[in-house]
Amino acid sequence: MSPMDEFKRETRAWLQANCPQSMRTPMPEDERCWGGRGASFKNPDSALWLARMAEQGWTVPTWPRAYGGGGLTPAEAQVLEAEMSTLGCRQPLFGFGISMLGPVLLKHGTEAQKQAFLPPIARGEIRWCQGYSEPGAGSDLANLQTRAEDCGDHFRINGQKIWTSYAHLSDWIFCLVRTSSERKQGGISFLLLDMQSPGVETRPITLISGASAFCETFFTDVKVPKSQLVGQLNEGWTIAKELLQHERGMISRIGRAIGGAIPAVETLAQRYLGDATGRISDPVLRDEVTRHAMNERAFELTMQRAGETSAAGTAADGLSSFFKYYGTEQNKRKFELILKCAGTRALGWEGEEFTAEELAICRTWLRSKGNSIEGGTSEIQLNVIAKRVLGLPD
Amino acid sequence: MLILDDTQTLLKTSAADFLAARSPVKALRALRDAGAPEGLDHALWQEMAGLGWPGALIPEDSGGSAIGYKGMGQILEETGRVLLASPLLSSSVVATSLLLEAGSTTQKEIWLPRLARGEVRAALALDEQPRHAPDVCQTHATPQGHGYVLHGAKCFVPDAVGADLLLVVASLSPDRKVEEAVAEAGIFLVPANTPGLDCTSLRMVDSRNAARVELGGVELPDSARLGEGSPVRQALSFALDAGRIGLAAEMLGNAQEAFDRTLRYLKLREQFGVAIGSFQALKHRAASLYCELELTRSAVLAALGALDCARDEVPALASLAKAKACEVIELMSNEAIQMHGGIGMTDAEEIGFFLKRARVAQQLYGDASFHRARYATLMGY
Ligand SMILES: Cc1cc2nc3c(=O)[nH]c(=O)nc-3n(C[C@H](O)[C@H](O)[C@H](O)COP(=O)(O)OP(=O)(O)OC[C@H]3O[C@@H](n4cnc5c(N)ncnc54)[C@H](O)[C@@H]3O)c2cc1C
Q1: CA of A137 to the centre of ligand 1 (A)
Q2: Nearest of A282, A323, A280 to residue A302 by alpha carbon
Q3: For residue B15, how many C-alpha atoms fall within 13 Å in the half-sphere facing its CB?
Q4: Residue of A76, A83, A235, A247 marked active site
Q5: pTM of the model
Q6: Closest partner residue to B283 among A298, A312, A382, by Cβ?
Q7: CATH fold label, B123-228
């Protein structure tokens, strides 16, 4: 038996022994675990599962063991992912810490920063939010105006962020601030700060889906120790862009992660429009659903191919923009198609007349509209592909 | 695996180099202008045989080079880039796969080594309708003595002109019920010089070889029946899928080349004092074409891999690959002309050749809507 087969066998055995039964069922949105000081677990098994996985280092399988990771090679991590998906195990932890901040801290953090921040992220103890966008700095992110003044041993922060997802539920924020007004990109720094610091205020904003998932975040004379600056002063833009790559990777997979709770389009089309043999009875919708399902398959194959390519050491530039663009547009098309197939059943806002799934479809459909805006809009992704991959001139 | 191993990568680059040197797009123009219905450079075909291409799917002990489907797909992609006119797909993939799958030992012994050496070119005569409809078969084979008599017509047979051997699908259903036509089909090996076989060249927009074939009482011995009586339906289905996947690889090459040429033009052509590639309306369309090409490439690679080593996945992946290839090549060829502006409309500029081949390739072995419907049926919805 090859070492990889051995690893696969052990992994499966461990998962079978340690993953609670209820963690092997599709995950409803409200059972996703985001961790943090204020984490609450609707299902106690979620806490158990998180603790066991964190103990193994498998909430962040490829991070070094010293920082709370599993120390797995990319190939081993793929095996783990495949085994989890075969057994239907839920991802134990979500969040900006494991998927966005962690990877850039591993690369750019000081040893002290890594020791201080990474293990709590891996264990899901600290929940992070992202302070990038401002009222005047959306797609043109580098136009941001939140200021950090140098006060000797600390910075003093003044300004406003907006669209800060889950700021009101988060413990810490990673933030882009202006430390120089001489150059646009070259005057930005990357800071970490505790949301409980005096002078931080959050105001939730209600989304079209009814949820209050993001906030306005205000900073008034907030003191931040200089040890919480990541990378060099005025060199935060490079880190900011790197982090966006991780964010785009995460968002392009989001539809698939949530997909566990909402069945595939073709399944719903059969349920609402299938004849006795299971054939989708409306020929036009059947064609549209099939086109969607085929694109979904081709997209998954492309992610698989990208994984194989990067394992072979020749990753292509700009792929994260491709995945972000296509994955989110595809997710929006998915929900539009479900609406067409389910008719008014998918348009209920609340109440007993609709099933929980139908209500979730409606809310998720509305939320999906944000997928092609957050993390850089579709138009911005196309700009990036045109420039970085295709080399088209500005 | 959706990526190439070292041998396949080498095969692809050497095929690209060979074809760029020996058969650039202007070779197709020359064949078209010469007006020969066969549309084939015989010397080039012999060189291809020397490289083992016609024998790519044939085992070494039958004289082949055993390159396999995935390797053959790389060659076909490169032939798509230069719009090579050759029977590599029709003879060396479709007809050869059919013989490999369903041929009797004797039939294989007779034909495979000669196919591998490129001495014989074979063509599958199947379609009787303007749109691919493999289940429709009115061509009929009636048993007679120690053989059969064939009557009927095939409206579009790729690479039939000059082919040495036709593989003719004919119904054996005694009462000529159309529903049973394919379930009870036989496939007959008909040498080109058999009396009663009539082949009329079709001058197609892509300047490639195709013909209408008529069978007016073609008399054949028992031994001409493929598989000598064993069922051939599955073999036909597999060979068609191999053709669809191979063609999807060719179409990927066509679309990729049209894309690369268009991209070069976007960087070169200036209007309003800047390169037209700086206009966002064009950038975004180019970026979205790039995404579509990447998806198609993944589908083609997965399907090629399945032909070699995951046969139960072949039907669905063949339809996925062909449908995606059809969609992307239609979009790509239209955008290529549009983004070239007036020059794209001229015969002197080569981009039009890509458009012309694209549409014929789309129709061949089923277009996007054919394959979406088939995929849905295979998936049970
Ligand atoms: C659900 C959700 C969650 C979010 N979470 C966070 C978060 O946690 N932290 C955070 O910092 N931010 C967050 N954001 C903000 C997000 O990053 C911004 O909304 C996004 O970058 C777009 O900025 P904007 O809203 O100002 O739109 P604008 O930039 O004003 O864009 C408006 C429109 O103009 C188009 N446009 C703009 N520039 C160009 C161009 N150069 N070429 C072509 N078209 C262009 C855009 O594509 C868009 O269609 C979130 C957003 C959403 C929707």
Answers
A1: 8
A2: A323
A3: 27
A4: A247
A5: 0.93
A6: A382
A7: Butyryl-CoA Dehydrogenase, subunit A; domain 2 (2.40.110)
